[in-house]
Every structure is written in structure tokens, then in C-alpha cells.
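Format is chain and fold; as here:
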Amino acid sequence: MKNIFLLFAVLSPIGLNAKDAAFLWLPPQKPDFSVLTSSMPQKAKLTVACEIEKCADLSKYVQKDKIELSAAPKNMSFVSLIYFPSSIDIDFLKTINDNPSFFALTAADLKKEAEQYYSPSGFVSPYGDLNLSQISLYKALGYSWAAAGANRQKENCLFDYGGFKIPVFEILTSTQQVFLSSCPFFAINDSFYETDYSSSTMEALFSAQDINMLTVSQAIAVSTPDALTENELSFYPWVGYKDYLNSEQLYPYIKTLSLLKNDITLFLNSAPKKEKELLSQYFEAEKLISDIRNGKDISQAEEEASEIIISAYQIMGKSAPDFAYKPFFAKKENKNYEMTVKNKEISFYALNPQLSISEFSVGETEKGLSFVIKSSTQSEIKDLGIYIDINSATGAGNVSLLNSVKNKLYVKNAWDYALIAEKDKIHLYGYSFYSLKKLKTYPLKKDGGNRLFFIPSSDMPQNFEKWKYAVINSYSGNIIDGIYKDIQDGFIYPF
């Protein structure tokens, strides 16, 4: 389901009609801008925040009075985490040096390059994170506003810090939300995805007859801000840093990038002509974070990172330091289950005889999918739930488990289908468009310690080998054990 962690209290009117609202779209990594030319109403307006290359392409064929283009960091990076890691409340990250000078260098370079194609009025960190260092820099570079999540101390829709405006955005999930919220600023955040995930939301927004779409700058102009002091410049991001990184395995890589940024900054102080070449190398290294989140193999990413970093030091005429040759990512192995895929079947085998599920398999037949659960002789299966994520898309599916289980699935692997055992039956649940539905019920056969059931191909998609699985054995809402990669901070990471 969508990553919505912002709760807004009822606020006083700020000068906008209830049906007027500003919309900020953060396109995916491979955007299709045709929706803006084919479906966007003539009177509608929109603000788009994207990397220079994408916004430059967009600026060529949209009407400038309809589309407001704002700046965004290279790789749509999580600015606080990548450039100001010591501000993150995690012990390991607090030990990493911040890189404000490097961020100022890249932000100034970005502004200069962007102005060759368009004039960005605001700056958008894709995850709504904002701090004093960023605000001071954006203001110095000539931006008039920066997007943010909810303020940690005050409840309002728009803030002012020394003449610089900070609109507070909600993540848009439906057009109805526009009328329920007291605030007029909404973000459609696709920056996590490779292709458009919110196209249906955009279509619904464009077809709504009772919403007057404004750009962010237009909404700011007719709104009354609340002044902030320096001590109040703290905001909740739209997306948590753990969701951005996908795993604590990447924490050490944040430190590696910090060391690289510091060395590049020191080198460029005396050799500025190498700036473009070195920044290109750095951003290739940084991009591996999103590549891993989108499924790149960590071993392959580690090899590429080493090559990029060594190349950067070659450009600086230096020998690469030791960290360029060491593993960048913390290794994590699940020692409970082994997964195999062969002959149209995916299977999980227990490596620990104490586990309640000794084997779980899904196999494809001509008529559908066959499921087999083999129980251990040393532990009992109580309440069985099988949770399936078919697309690994952040924002799709349900993170909450059934059977009253208190834990939740990691947001990127929220379930689209759930199979819940009840005596001699297995119930199939589906979750889409923020709605939980019980779809079908099938017979559950028991043969000794085995449980078997069959689902026709018409009831579920057939690319089962690419799905993510979490098989949970619970009792009274508490997890006994199950098949999953890990549990961290109450979140389950499926296989």
C-alpha cells in the first residue's frame, strides 16, 4: 500500500477554494510523459520534479503555462541520508561524516545545467526530507520554495523561513483525498519505480470535474504561511530511509560514498577542470543504491562499485584506497531455508529440523498451481498464512498480515494475494485499490504431515517463479516461525 505516514490535523483556511489544489508529480525512472499531452485538461496545471535530462525532454513539448518544472537531485537520491547521514537516528549512520560542500557543489552544478533548458522555481527532494543546510543552499541558489513532509513541531500546510517557502505535501492516493484534506499540496511520487505506477491516479485526477489543478507556485502565492524559526526546521520524509535503502546491508556503502565524496571535494579544490568527469563517476556509484532496490544482484553491484571507485581515483591521479577493494555491503544469509527453482517448481527446504515447516513448494501444472506444505515431526503448524507479492512494487499491496499477526511485511513486498488455512479449507484473499477481498475457497487436503491444495490458473497469475513468498506459522497473533529472509524492527522480508 502507499507509503503514507503523514497525519494532518484540521487546519485553518489558507486562502484556497476547497476544490483548488496543487499537484507535484515525481516521475519514475523511465517516464512516459504522453499522459500529460493526451489526457491533461486544457485548464489543468501541474508541477513536475525530475532529473535534468527528463525535465529537459519534457520542456520541449509541454505548454509552459501548464507545466511548472522544479529541480530534483541526480538519481532522485535521499538527500539527508546520502549527504547528511549523521542526521539520521541510527548509531552506525551517525558516525559517518556529512558532505555539505559536495552537495552544494552538485546542487549548484545542477541549477546551472537546468537553466539551459528551463527555469526551475523550486527544489524537490523525492522523499520530502529537508533540513537547514538544504534550505540555506536552495535559497542561495535562487529557488523560492522546497517541498517537505509534515513538520515535526508545527501543524500547517505552508511555512516561511526568511522569505523562503516550504509547502507541506501529502502523498496522493485518490481524488477523494483532495476533499478530505485541509491542505492543498499533494505529491504523486513515482520516483521509486522504473515505469509509471500512478498512471491510474493521474487519469482519475485529470478526469475529475470538481478539482481545479494548480502549480505549486500558484498555490503558494494565494496561501498564508506560518513562520518557522531555525530550531523548527525539521520535517518527516514521505518515505523512510529504510525503504529507500531496502536493507541495512547498504549502510556500509553510505560510508564508502561519504569517503569518496570527501576525497573528490578536496581534489576539486585544486583541479576544478576534472569536475564533470568526477561527478559522473560519483553519480554512477550512487545510482547502485536504487539499482539494488530494483533487484540488481548485490554481488554484481559490488563488482561495479569497485570498478567505478577505482576509476574515480585514477582520474584524480591517485591509487585507490583500501576500501575500494573491500566488500561494500554487509552480508546477510538466511540459515533456516534453502530455495531451489527447477522443472516448473519453486521449493523451500528447512535447514533446521526444529522449524515447523520442513518444506514448502509451488508447482505449475496444465490447469493451475499446486501447493504443498510439509510439516516437521518436531514442531506443529498452528495458524498458517501464505503471503505472495507478485510485483515487488512499493505502494502496491497490503503490508498488514491476517490471522491477527502483529508484524507487517516490508513495504516493497506488501502482499497482493494471501492464502489462509482454516481446518480443511484454504481461503484466497486479494488486495488491490486499498481494498481487501476474499476471492475464493479451496479444499485443503491433509496426507500425514503434508497439506496440499490446488488453485486453477484462472484464479491467479502464472509467473509464480518471480513472486516473493512469506509463509507464516502463528498462534494467537504471534509468529512461531516461517519461511522468510529476515525480520527487522517488526517487518518481515519475504523470500
